[in-house]
Amino acid sequence: MITLRNEIRDLLAIMLSKADVALILDYLNRKPIFQSRDVFETWSDDSMQLGDRRFYRNQDESGNSIYFYGIKDVDETVEFLKYIDYPDDEAVTLIEDSLFFFLYYNLSLKKDPEISDYFNTLIKKSDIGEEWIMPSRSSSVLSRSDIIQGFIDRFEYKSYLEVGLARLENFNKIRCKNKVGIDPAKNDFNKCNLSQREKIDLFHQKSDDFFRENNEMYDIIFIDGFHEHQQCRRDVENSLKFLNTSGTIIMHDLNPGHFISQKFPPKSNGDVWKTFAELRTTRQELEMFTICTDQGVGVIRRGDQTIYADPDFELSYEYFDKNRVKLMNMISIKDFLEMMEMSSSD
Ligand SMILES: C[S@@+](CC[C@H](N)C(=O)[O-])C[C@H]1O[C@@H](n2cnc3c(N)ncnc32)[C@H](O)[C@@H]1O
Questions:
Q1: Atom from ligand 1 closest to the CA of residue 224
Q2: pLDDT digit string (tens) for 48-105?
């Protein structure tokens, strides 16, 4: 069963009758997006950990791998599992985002003070300007933090740099020997979880200034600062200069669900997808893919890629929307799990 995020459900309840909401949910549920493990008679205990998530593997009738994620309780029974496959998880997010923006923009909700207040609680004013804080992404099976931690654990990375910290939601989750974070906003760095086993440095700086003065190399760099194409391009170019040979760059917000969410000034994702798209069309010496989860999580490593070549290529949302899978080299969560399993057996 699909359960929409509370915020969306509340909005739908304000705007539509209960019968309409039931109809929409019925429609969405006709396509089974999540299945429970009960569909299998036998169950394998084959599993792997990525960040906070544990993924269990089973096989369908044709012998193909199927992954579930779950949390084992004290009795070692799997209490909560969801079936993962492309593009279903992201489809839920896209449906929710589309509904959210549709309601916000097309129904002139701003004119209604009560609803306008409600939306304002979702907008955070920072030193840099207004920034959308989207409702929590509970439908994301695999988060950016799980992916980053997965790389750190698999490749035994020792140094981590995060560009853009906000409330340190991700930074605090990451476990790595040396952690460096930068953010020019007057964020409360006191919220940083200190650990005796980690060396942590935080800088109130813009990324351009930080990189100008920096002379350290990093194993993994997470770029999630100012969500604007040109700034993001500088962040990637600078990160490549300070990335160890077998290092990894992770980018966030590469798969906006709606043209409004990628508009600049940034609503939620901004137009950082353009930076990634440009590199896909020009940089053969990089390996690049986007994992279709948590707003689109990009991975850049030194390697070899077939560059994306299309004479009609243009940096417009319309083009992106039609060609996003190939342009961004989008892979499913399942593809990514398989890739990580292969890298650990190397
Ligand atoms: C989307 S939030 C970061 C979220 C965080 N990485 C996470 O995953 O929880 C973006 C942050 O980037 C910061 N920022 C804006 N411009 C920046 C810049 N030029 N350099 C570094 N950080 C910047 C903002 O202040 C904001 O806190």
A1: 6
A2: 776 665 666 666 666 666 665 544 332 333 322 333 333 344 444 544 544 554 455 4
Cα 206 to ligand 1 centre (Å): 9
Helix (H) or strand (E) holding 230: helix 229-241
Check pocket membership of 185 for ligand 1, CB cut-off 6 A. Answer: yes
Kindly give the distance from the C-alpha atom of residue 167 to the centroid of ligand 1, in angstroms, as a whole number: 9
What's the distance, Cα to Cα, between the start and end of the chain in Å?
38
Domains and CATH numbers, the chain: 6-31+88-121 (no CATH), 37-84 (no CATH), 144-345 (3.40.50.150)
Tokens 């304000």, located at residue: 14
Residue to mutate, 132, 161, 167, 224, ligand 1, most ligand atoms under 8 Å from C-beta: 224
Going through the chain in order, the beta strands assigned E by DSSP cover 47-50, 53-59, 65-72, 78-84, 123-126, 129-132, 159-163, 178-182, 199-203, 218-223, 243-251, 286-291, 297-302, 330-331
Is residue 272 lining ligand 1, measured as CB closer than 6 Å?
no
pTM attached to this predicted model = 0.72
